[in-house]
Amino acid sequence: MLKTTLAFCLLLLLQTTYASSPAAIVGLQCEYLERPLGLDAPTPRFTWRLQDARPGARQTAYRVLVATDSVALAQGRGAVWNSGVVKAGTTLVTYAGPALQPFTRYYWRVEVKDHRKQPAVSPITSFETGMLDQRNWQGAWIADAHDQHTRSAPYFRKVFEAKNSIKSARAYVAAAGLYELSVNGQRVGNHVLDPMYTRFDRRTLYVTYDITKLLQTGQNALGVLLGNGWYNLQSTAVWDFHKAPWRARPTFCMDVRITYTDGHVETITTGKDWKTALSPVIFNSIYTAEHYDARREQPGWNTVNFNDKEWKEVFFRTAPSRNIVAQAVRPIRAVEELPAQSIRRLNDTTYVFDLGRNIAGVSRLAVQGPAGTVVRLKHGERLYPNGHVDLSNIDEHYRPTDKSDPFQTDIFILGGKGKESFQPRFNYKGFQYVEVTSSRPLPLTKESLTGYFLHSDVPAVGHVASANLTLDKLWQATNASYLSNLFGYPTDCPQREKNGWTGDSHIALETGLYSFDGITVYEKWLADYRDEQQPNGVLPSIVPTNGWGYEWGNGPDWTSSVVLIPWNIYLFYGDPKLLADCYDNMRRYVDHITEISPTHLTTWGLGDWVPVTDKPPVEFTSTCYYYADVAIMAKAARLFGKTADAARYEALAAAIQQAFNAKYLNPQTGLYGKGTQTEMSMPLYWHLVPEAAKAQVAANLAKQVATDNYHLNVGLLGQKAILNALSENGYADVAYRIASQETYPSWGWWIKNGATTLYENWNIQAKHDISLNHIMFGEIGAWLYKGLGGIHPDPAHPGFRNVLLTPHFVPNLAHFEASHEAPQGTIRSAWSRTGRTVHYTVTVPPNATATLHLPVVEGLQAYREGRALKGDAVQLVAGSYTFEWK
């Protein structure tokens, strides 16, 4: 190893003599974040990509260096950890050096050799540790003297002196509830709704901020405004979050760690020297809305010279949990600003603004009027015929006790001091329209109101475009619904529930992973699962929960997410950590199903939710998911070398498959159950169909679809399976006919009726279950990548180290392209027609390979660069390729 390392270093030193690689190392991340602050991971993960356009480009060796001095690191010195030269193509490496120290910035870089043994060196980047150990907290948990029923949100402030020149400063903020932090009158950061929602009495998150530039030598002021969030929900709905066992007045703890230029470190903490007062936020509910009385503003409350003699002392509180950990997750931000597209005046005091599309987020109103004027901003997804905002499709689960907390309706009381504006801090809503009603006439214009699209700010990594405009709009609507339901955990809808429904999440999982880099959100959310799981393995149907959902809505069809999410993260990222972290939870969950299902069939679950008409027995659909879970458990056990577990789950999977087919499959006709779309597609998709029967079952599914006039007749579970079952078994043309339908019932029917997000019900005239921004029918977004673009991860080489390509050149579509930025780089699969000739282009990223399964096009021969191709598959190395069928 020493010889190899010295040789590698010699090559680097001689780069002036010998040509270095034209490859560049890009996309450096630590824990899937760029230059993260405040990490608690004791062994963080490093990832990178090669940027190299040469055919066959790949990495043959790497070395990772970690140091605390960037200058020394640039000179190849001072490494805290040197991985040594490893002859491998992996671009995911876990730190394996000495124990990391808290509050420390570490610098790191990667050195690689390319396929010609030429070296390349990455830029130097960094990560910074946080507390690492809860014993490193110095601050106290503080709150004001009010109880959980007090409606006004509290302010907190403290003035301190920085006596020397400041080199760096970090604020570490943990809270039960939500908060906004300010330093010297300036808000810190651009996150919203921090910290993210967890099971507060089992795990509390803290966030780290770099506040160096906001502090000054001399006097400084810290300000905190606390909101309720899910910790102190004062609104009442069917899930009883107002009865949560953790519920209390919001509280927080903060350490501000200042490093001076002379090396001295000082920590400013929360304690009895802070002061508190009630704020103008007179009510805030993450579920309903926010109320603000500008007459109660205290200008300069978070600055040094503010007179706080009327403010009260703070009170110590018990920490909400014993597990305070870093929030290493893509933050929630106001990602997009949407000007109002139109305004309609209904009368002297009522205007309705239209943003032009459905979003999750908030609105900002700019207005001028007399003090005490009450302005109500009602947010909704649709309008009554008379033009007023209609909430009847989204407020059915709300159970208000009085009229003081109207649903999705902000209340702004003007201060009367000229132009003023209001934007909620501790709430978000699902809406397209805002009805603004004032207690006296106010002059409003289209520019008076702006919408802000809020969601976890996950980078886009996928793109789809085609010759079918409705299909493209559908992909965009799917992504809009996915993002509208990503707030540090995946939700079902952003208005009437905001719950982390486990079934909705795994149904839309691949849709999210193909289009967005969401691993940090899923890793955070699966930690919530581990917090919520009962000792016997049972999980609730919503995560996090206050205790609701253990008795209804859970079961294999919903809570299989505990198995499906870690497995798919492994497939998409090639990272087994989440799978390993959840292995015991997965095992306990699956073993519980086995314990209550002695016949290997299970009736535990909800079934095919919101079907068009046909709904199979719950036993049918739940057993399909039970089988899928067990099959994955067997694969995970093999991966981790747990041979006894693997053998047991393999045998169990075979027993479930046999019992299921014995009861539901007619071997003579090739029909499952009554032959409905869901009954025929789910066994195909989840691989319960015996190999010898697949062709007949698939043909029967296609016939049933034709009988249904190529329209959907499925619910939530069936729509996950049907397109994939068809395209994976020789009927991609039939799948496309379903996907491209524009009449009821279909996805396209929504688009043709003006949808910019996905709906909760196929029937847009439904009286119930008709949210206009639900992600549960979102599998269509993933299928476009899979069923038309043909981009699949290879379980034998996860993380798209080998890409499985199965494009389908379906009739009646002239052009289609899909791209996905995988861990190794961008995969692109695109095809088009010129007359009868089909042109297909594919890009395989550096450091990856691909297996292209050649589509069979009747009457046409496949060619590559003018040479006829034989066989049914072609193996490709990194590069771009063009094929023709003619």
UniProtKB/TrEMBL annotation:
In the record, which residues are listed under signal peptide?
Answer: 1-19
The UniProt keywords, alphabetically, are: Hydrolase, Signal
Q: Which lineage do the record's taxonomy fields give for this organism?
A: Bacteria, Pseudomonadati, Bacteroidota, Cytophagia, Cytophagales
Q: What EC number(s) has UniProt assigned to this enzyme?
A: 3.2.1.40
* The protein, known as: alpha-L-rhamnosidase
The chain positions of domain Alpha-L-rhamnosidase C-terminal read 790-859
Q: Does the keyword Signal apply?
A: yes
Annotated ranges, domain Alpha-L-rhamnosidase concanavalin-like: 344-455
Q: What does it catalyze?
A: Hydrolysis of terminal non-reducing alpha-L-rhamnose residues in alpha-L-rhamnosides
Q: Which Pfam families match?
A: Bac_rhamnosid (PF05592), Bac_rhamnosid6H (PF17389), Bac_rhamnosid_C (PF17390), Bac_rhamnosid_N (PF08531), Ig_Rha78A_N (PF25788)
Q: Which organism is it from?
A: Hymenobacter citatus
Annotated InterPro entries: 6-hairpin_glycosidase_sf, 6hp_glycosidase-like_sf, Alpha_rhamnosid, Bac_rhamnosid6H, Bac_rhamnosid_C, Bac_rhamnosid_N, Ig-like_fold, Rhamnosid_concanavalin
Instruction: Tell me yes or no: is Ribosomal protein among this UniProt entry's keywords.
Output: no
Alpha-L-rhamnosidase six-hairpin glycosidase domain location? 461-786
In this chain the Bacterial alpha-L-rhamnosidase N-terminal domain maps to 165-336
GO molecular function terms here?
hydrolase activity
